[in-house]
Design goal:
Length: 478
Amino acid sequence: MTSVQVDEQHDGNEAAQAETDEGYKRGLGARQIQMIAIGGAIGTGLFLGAGKGISKAGPSLILAYAVAGVVIFCIMRALGELLMYRPVSGSFSEYAREFIGPFAGFATGWTYWLFWVITGMTEVTAAATYMTFWWDIPQWVSALVFTVILYGANLISVKLFGELEFWFSTVKVTAIIGMILICAGILTIGFSDAGDTASITHLWDIGGFFAGENGIGSTLMTLQMVMFAFLAVELVGVTAGEAKDAKKVLPKAINTVPWRIAVFYVGALIMILSVVPWTSFKAGESPFVHAFDKMGLGVGAAIVNFVVLTAALSSCNSGMYSTGRMLRDLAQNGQGPNFFTKLSKNGLPVIGTTFSAAMMLVGVWINYQWPGEAFNYVVSFATISGMWAWIIILICQIRYRLKSDRGELPKSEFRAPWGVWVSGLALAFIFMVIVLMGIDPDARVSLYAAPVWAAILGVAYFFLKKRNPESASFAKRN
């Protein structure tokens, strides 16, 4: 469905009920969408990034994940309200065009594309790091091999993509639940090398709950890494154009957010830090692998390392999926090269995916140049660009809700609770995190890059508008 059609349908319920007609094949079923939603946020940020957070803030990192998790649920309910109003694969940039303006759609589409390209670099970097657990090989070699393999995987049908992601996510979920059960067994029965010392009191008896160097200040400074761990939860919005029965499946997927955060983040960290004292963790090392090493379960550490390797590759695979769709949406609106609109016989945006995969190869070069610092560099860039999508979702939901309450637009079948106030608070929280990023020397580099990227977008849009005035209108080019 084009943006012009949406504009014409604003006076009735058709906009909320119309099927999208973007050329994609609706090959993603309920089972696959659910697991993509559950597994989308289980990746590098949790399995690798949590090590840095634990070493910096101690047990209070658990609280940081819990508070941020509440904000993430507010964002997802805001997205759900918009998706039930109009489910489209280019959801973020489409909503930005409709509720903010053409430039907002342009900036959002290209920024979200950049986010996933950088995230792909991040996940490939993490995967290369995990490979050193078994073999002493250069990180850049592993990163190159993984990028090529995942690119090939994204040339299959969307149904097979969904099936691959289903099993990737199943492995991650099963592993975390298994780890929680093992830790629970150690705490209650006392087996393994950690059995004699494991105790829930580790959460507060080693320097206190806020055990970081600066107390609660250290906890606040971990929010940048915590928010990065949740990036990709919004991926279900990109799948909207290829989901079977989207208006039934997507709300169910979104409503799983609270329990998956409670189990996979809060629950897992409570168990790990109860079995192994937080002082033994360090940045750059997976806390899951380290915990099994401390337990004396060497085989378990190897298994967990394989699982976190799978998690990183899964996130990178999702990145290649979403970048091709976002480039096609931009091209259809005249805000990107027209050749990105072409689909393969299987309904896949092959040209956009190929271009994105080529850009991800920059991550291989980063690994070659700075193998020790690569992860920190790309995490900072990914966080600020990913949070832009959340900001746009919240602003669009606020504007949509105000219009629908006035009767100017049909009401969504999946309205976010507490109206626009919760979205406003979520926006304030995100802006607080951005301020904290400016204070943190490690994260500040991303804020330096943000105005540069904004300037590039501004210049590009200026020339695009002069060359193609249609791109500055709400009309989508067919």
